[in-house]
């Protein structure tokens, strides 16, 4: 009897991610309120609707055990969210430390620091950060195992939780576990500098299915396993002692319908009218990024500065709206970046601005979904100049909102999206300021015919490669892989 009949895959989908898709805060009356969080992972998973889903993650806040915590947990539970509580000392070492100062950096090709980092006289060593990473992964494991029922499928997300597949398999050998990485996986030459490279790989390999955005990232992962662990890489994945972890590429997408519908609402239409009025007579370029060094914001600003310098005829005729959503503000590198960006913006506005024209409109905050849609819809060019980026869904969102205007996408060749939207975009090397300045000129002067043709290609891709198809493909493959693994276990 085929195993899928013995054990129907009718269980729930348990998504485990570091962060819940909502941020919790209190209103003036002291009542808890929930707000959608920023970032590609949230944006993609918001577009997945077909499953009965439980989401486990850190609620972005620590609340002491007691009534207040219970009230928040109950509110989250009603939405299908289960919180993992991480007290501030642990969180700092795990999240600011190992996740965002070690793995995040390394996976985006930024070499390791000397040994952890120094902040206000306090030193976090890499060893301490690693200890906290293990402990935090255990905490997530406890919450998953507490609610797990046979037949459920566990889908672990991202670099924060690379040890979780092994924690779960050790507790329940037949548990169905997939792991997906939302960042790049770097070349094995970079990855192998990680002091705990073996422990991390071995733990992740316990997943039945391991997914990446692009084929290149999957290949880098497989070669790290062969070179560092001496395992055998096959076209299917990695083989370890007769068991196979399947490794493959599953490019993510968005829910384009959500944007199309938002554009129809009165609220967005009103925002659009206001913006068009404000920008009348000028071209507008848009950047929307988390304030993160991998997004290449300073490089983008320098390219715009160069463009204005070389093209006096465009001064007063084009402006850049840069939305920089604050992110990981306790990590020293992110604090330095913020000052650097402010300094460059000030310099450019001081040099090229007039009493009636400000070349860069810079905002340090997250916009509401409706404000963002309006901005996507009215701008002429999107500038996405990431130095490295797993996929970059802002590029997809921009395309989804540009059905009328057919705006131009200037896209870094180091974003995963370059592999899917490359043909319809102007691809740039963000480190080459001249190249980006030239791309700005091309984008601003492109004929309408060419813009429409490029947009058509990009739009076709965004409309057909959605978050839903991404999740469906991953989940059905996880089911198949697990059935095969289970058969092997039985024989
Ligand atoms: C990236 C990561 C996500 C993360 C998001 C926002 O997209 O892949 O896992 O949630 O950034 O970062 P934050 O640290 O604020 O969760």
Automatic annotation (TrEMBL):
Work out whether the entry's keyword set contains Transferase: yes
Q: Superkingdom of the source?
A: Eukaryota
* Keywords noted in UniProt: Glycosyltransferase, Transferase
Q: Where are the transmembrane segments?
A: none
- The protein here is known as alpha,alpha-trehalose-phosphate synthase (UDP-forming)
Q: Indicate the span of the full protein covered.
A: 68 to 558 of 1059
């Amino acid at each position: 009897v085929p195993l899928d009949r013995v054990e129907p895959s009718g269980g729930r989908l348990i998504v485990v991610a570091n962060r819940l898709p909502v941020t919790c805060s209190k209103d003036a009356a002291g009542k808890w309120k929930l707000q959608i969080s920023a970032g590609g992972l949230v944006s993609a998973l918001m577009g997945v609707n077909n499953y009965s889903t439980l989401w486990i993650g850190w609620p972005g806040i620590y609340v002491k055990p007691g009534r207040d915590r219970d009230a928040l947990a109950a509110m989250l539970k009603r939405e299908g969210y289960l919180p993992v509580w991480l007290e501030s000392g642990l969180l700092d070492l795990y999240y600011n430390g190992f996740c965002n100062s070690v793995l995040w950096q390394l996976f985006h090709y930024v070499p390791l620091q000397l040994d952890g980092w120094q902040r206000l006289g306090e030193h976090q060593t890499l060893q301490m950060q690693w200890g906290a990473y293990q402990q935090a992964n255990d905490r997530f494991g406890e919450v998953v195992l507490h609610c797990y029922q046979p037949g459920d499928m566990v889908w672990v997300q991202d670099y924060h939780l690379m040890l979780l597949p092994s924690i779960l398999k050790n507790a329940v050998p037949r548990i169905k576990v997939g792991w997906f990485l939302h960042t790049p996986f770097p070349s094995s030459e970079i990855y192998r500098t990680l002091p705990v490279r073996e422990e991390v790989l071995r733990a992740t390999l316990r997943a039945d299915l391991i997914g990446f955005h692009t084929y290149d990232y999957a290949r880098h992962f497989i070669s790290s396993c062969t070179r560092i662990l001496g395992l055998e890489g096959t076209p299917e994945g990695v083989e370890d002692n007769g068991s196979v972890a399947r490794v493959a590429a599953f490019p993510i997408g968005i829910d384009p319908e959500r944007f199309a519908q938002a554009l129809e609402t009165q609220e967005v239409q009103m925002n659009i009218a206001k913006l068009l009025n404000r920008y009348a007579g000028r071209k507008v370029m848009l950047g929307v990024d988390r304030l993160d060094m991998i997004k290449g914001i300073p490089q983008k600003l320098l390219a715009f500065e160069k463009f204005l310098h070389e093209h006096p005829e465009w001064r007063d005729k084009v402006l850049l709206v840069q939305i920089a959503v604050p992110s990981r503000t306790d990590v020293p590198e992110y604090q330095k970046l913020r000052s650097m960006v402010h300094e460059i913006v000030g310099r450019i506005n001081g040099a090229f601005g007039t009493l009636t024209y400000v070349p860069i409109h810079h905002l340090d905050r997250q916009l509401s979904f409706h404000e963002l849609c309006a901005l996507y819809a009215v701008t002429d060019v999107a500038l996405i100049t990431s130095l490295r980026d797993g996929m970059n869904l802002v590029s997809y969102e921009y395309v989804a909102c540009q059905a009328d205007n057919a705006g131009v996408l200037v896209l870094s060749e180091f974003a995963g999206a370059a592999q899917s939207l490359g043909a319809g975009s102007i691809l740039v090397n963000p480190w080459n300021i001249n190249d980006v300045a030239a791309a700005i000129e091309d984008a601003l002067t492109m004929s309408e015919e060419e813009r429409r043709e490029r947009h058509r290609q990009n739009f076709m891709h965004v409309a057909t490669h959605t978050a839903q198809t991404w999740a469906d493909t991953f989940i059905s493959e996880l089911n198949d892989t697990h059935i095969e693994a289970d058969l092997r276990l039985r024989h």
